[in-house]
């Protein structure tokens, strides 16, 4: 019947139109969520805590823990901040080069920046074995990871335990008495330094 056919056509068209409106309503936020945020994941600098930086400059022997606030954007998430810290040590450049063959002798262990700046080395607090956080034991003059027992000397050289390399240095910059670093995360369990991510 022509009347029934018209009703059928109307229902089909109405269903397609309604489905199109719902699909468009879903597609816009989904597409927005899948579009990376501009400049997310780019390498930027983070200012170190002034008190910690002053303590490092005044130190003569023991490494110093320096706090800062790490902020960054994942490609699809809003900006996030979290408290972090790094370890800074006053080092002799000539001795450091000899003690750290994992940086200077391994062709894939080097870094694309100076490992020492102004006589200081800044170390990531992440153990290069499996990503735990290590501590400095002043009574032993050693960095020690509680997770699996890797130990490192004050220059970050690997002494014992399952880690495949020494502590990872981070780039240090200083201008007008203000120090900052670039937060770089390296792949664990390998003697090579493979960048996993940057955060500002």
Structural summary, described in words:
The chain is α+β, with helices and mostly antiparallel strands and 200 residues long. It has two domains: 1-35; 46-199, Rieske Iron-sulfur Protein, CATH 2.102.10.10. The chain has helices spanning 2-34, 50-58, 93-99, 101-104; strands at 46-47, 64-72, 80-90, 120-123, 134-137, 142-145, 151-152, 158-160, 169-170, 172-175, 178-181, 183-186, 195-199. A hairpin with an 8-residue loop joins β12 (183-186) and β13 (195-199). The radius of gyration is 26 Å and the shape is elongated. The model is unreliable at 38-43 (pLDDT under 50).
Short description:
The protein is an alpha+beta fold and 200 residues long. The chain contains 4 helices and 13 strands. The protein has helices spanning 2-34, 50-58, 93-99, 101-104; strands at 46-47, 64-72, 80-90, 120-123, 134-137, 142-145, 151-152, 158-160, 169-170, 172-175, 178-181, 183-186, 195-199.
Features:
200 residues, alpha+beta, 4-stranded antiparallel β-sheet, 4 helices, 13 strands, 26% helix, elongated
Task: Note the topology.
Elements: H1 2-34, E1 46-47, H2 50-58, E2 64-72, E3 80-90, H3 93-99, H4 101-104, E4 120-123, E5 134-137, E6 142-145, E7 151-152, E8 158-160, E9 169-170, E10 172-175, E11 178-181, E12 183-186, E13 195-199
Antiparallel strand pairs: 1-11, 2-3, 3-4, 4-9, 5-6, 6-7, 7-8, 10-11, 12-13
Helix content: 25-40%
CATH architecture of the largest domain: 3-layer Sandwich
Strand residue content:
25-35%
Order of strands in the sheet with most strands = 2-3-4-9
Q: pLDDT under 50 segments (min length 5)?
A: 38-43
Main β-sheet description:
4 strands, antiparallel
> Whole-number radius of gyration?
26 Å
The CATH top-level class label of the largest domain: Mainly Beta
- Give the beta-strand count: 13
CATH superfamily of the largest domain: Rieske [2Fe-2S] iron-sulphur domain
Number of helices: 4
Shape: elongated
Number of domains: 2
Strand-pairing-aware structural class:
alpha+beta
* Straight-line N-to-C gap: 70 Å
Give the overall average pLDDT: 83
